[in-house]
Design brief:
This protein is of the alpha/beta class. The chain contains 16 helices and nine strands. It is globular and about 75 Å long.
Length: 553
């Protein structure tokens, strides 16, 4: 009895020692294991994004491989020809086979369909009686009721281009015009599938984001799309990870520079087209302003000459970083920039080739210059205003202060005042919009004209990007007219004889312009107080891209 109790006592003691050892081991490894476990639990669902986006580009071929045993196409001389989105029916039919797993071979079913068609055609079609139309419809119905018979998929964008008698450029032509790679040739279903997936992933990607920015009018989705394009060193919109630095710390690596090229070129490539156009347009306008300023002022000693003042007004800025790209380019050319070493290190780090690339025998890439690197002069002072909805303005201010300025401190120290100045306004309320613009333009004029006469020569650049498509009917036209009226009013209030220049750069959906008709665009611009200088339509909602100059009068 005593022996049994002693054994039980020893067993209990050993179990207690084992428990203590396990607890001590857990205490030792928990600082490492717990964060690692949380990271795995958080990142596991996020890995679906990269995998699913890559699979999206394959889905059309996968769907077709397991769908129809036969595909119908029809010649163009059909009395039943239609222009439906998903299929084009023409008469008489011809069969195109696809190999699919089936109990019966595709050839057997096609032969049956042909036999049905011949029996109907031989008896009735040649006779030209009144029943021939019903027979043709009956023939088509019998064919399409058979398992898996469908038309060839329609590639989104095929209806554009001069070959299709469209005034809107084909996606590939629009991409070539602005110097970026074209979008993926995919079906409408593929684009919609990617759209739904990205909207769903926004909630996961920002689940643990302390800033919690609002996805108002797809502003947050556009930030991720621009980060994808901006991390591609071969693109003309390469921004040295500027948009990338606005994203959450953990989840942003899904669109890092090493992974961005793996995503199919769908929505982010479409946004890349308009981003490239606007960046090049703004840089060209700045070069034009500086060339005119140098010529008119007969500048011979740039050091002692006052700098030209340029005002950038972004209507519906969202989470765009165009103003920051301009500021960073200006700071890079300025020898007295604070944190200049950090700025140069940031730029140079993108050019280095790591040991992985050496092992893979990959050539050291040379990133394209972005459009703002082509600005020829730095003898200008830039002030920037961004107008948007209150919730977007609040979220962007929080992103700048808590995230971007910490990751890029030279941006915070490089601007003398608040940059950019964020202003809350709803563009559907034209009165509030007019007061906001007048406060920006006339307020600075009345405040500074006694101290600095050069303030009257401030040239304004107004930018619209993907905002008019969300406004009420009639507002886009009135908004363009309002901008020109406010700028012309500034010219009348000036105390010098210099004509105030105003420029408009847009990638949006203008009113009263069907398709991409340039003549209609000229009329729309003239009726709102602008002279159209450049015009480039593209597929998508924000299909109208162009540059215009203020009509003074």
């Amino acid at each position: 009895m005593a022996h049994g109790s002693r054994t039980a006592h020893i067993t209990a003691h050993e179990a207690l020692d084992g428990t203590k050892r396990r607890l001590e081991l857990y205490v030792l490894i928990s600082p490492i294991a717990t964060p690692l476990l949380l990271l795995i639990m958080t990142a596991f669902p996020l890995t679906l994004l990269a995998v699913a986006m890559a699979v999206i580009s394959w889905m059309p071929s996968i769907n077709h491989a397991f769908s129809s045993p036969a595909v119908l196409t029809f010649p163009s001389s059909s009395p039943l020809q239609t222009d439906a989105d998903d299929r084009k029916l023409r008469w008489p039919p011809t069969m195109v086979l696809r190999s699919v797993p089936s109990a019966r071979s595709a050839a057997d079913e096609v032969e049956e369909f042909k036999a049905d068609g011949r029996s109907l055609l031989d008896d009735n079609i040649q006779s030209g009686d009144e029943a021939s139309e019903n027979i043709r419809k009956s023939f088509l119905q019998r064919i399409f009721k058979r398992g898996g018979v469908r038309a060839l998929p329609v590639i989104r964008g095929d209806k554009y281009g001069a070959s299709n008698n469209s005034t809107i450029l084909a996606p590939s032509d629009a991409a070539i015009k602005v110097g970026v790679e074209p979008t993926l040739e995919a079906t409408k279903e593929t684009w919609q599938r990617a759209w739904r997936l990205h909207r769903f992933m926004m909630r996961i990607l920002h689940r643990f984001d302390k800033c919690q920015p609002k996805d108002s009018k797809l502003a947050l989705a556009c930030l991720w799309w621009k980060a994808l394009a901006g991390n591609d060193p071969t693109s003309s919109v390469y921004d040295y990870e500027l948009s990338y630095d606005l994203l959450p710390t953990i989840t942003r690596w899904f669109v890092c520079r090493r992974l961005c090229r793996l995503y199919p070129r769908l929505h982010h490539a479409n946004v890349e087209i308009r981003t490239a156009y606007l960046d090049k347009s703004v840089s060209s306008v700045i070069n034009t302003i500086m060339r005119d300023y140098t010529t008119n002022a007969n500048i011979t000693t740039p050091v002692t000459t006052p700098k030209k003042k340029i005002r950038l007004i972004v209507m519906g800025g969202g989470y765009d970083t165009r103003s920051m790209k301009l500021l960073e380019t200006s700071l890079l050319k300025n020898g007295n920039t604070a944190h200049r070493e950090l700025l140069e290190q940031k730029r140079q780090s993108q050019h280095k080739s790591g040991w992985r690339n050496i092992l893979r025998s990959r050539k050291r890439f040379s990133p394209n210059k972005n459009a703002f690197d082509n600005i020829t002069s730095n003898q200008y002072d830039l002030e920037c205003y961004e107008l948007d909805l209150p919730e977007v303005v609040h979220a962007k201010r929080k992103l700048l202060q808590s995230r971007l300025f910490h990751r890029r401190p030279w941006l915070k120290d490089g601007a003398a005042n608040e940059y950019p100045k964020l202003i809350s306004v709803n563009f559907n309320n034209l009165n509030d919009t007019q007061r906001a613009l007048e406060k920006i333009i006339h307020g600075s004029l009345e405040k500074n004209d006694e101290d600095d006469l050069t303030v009257n020569s401030i040239d304004n650049i107004i930018v619209f990007e993907g905002v008019m498509i969300y406004l009420d009917e009639g507002i886009p036209h009135s908004l363009l007219e309002l901008c020109s009226n406010v700028l012309n009013k500034q010219s009348n209030l000036g105390t010098t004889n210099e004509i105030v220049q105003g420029y408009l750069c847009f990638a949006d959906r203008l009113e009263n312009i069907p398709g991409g008709d340039e003549d209609a665009a000229l009329i729309e611009m003239e009726s709102t107080g602008w002279d159209l200088l450049d015009w480039l339509p593209k597929p998508g909602l924000a299909r109208h891209m162009g540059v215009a100059r203020l009509r003074c009068g």
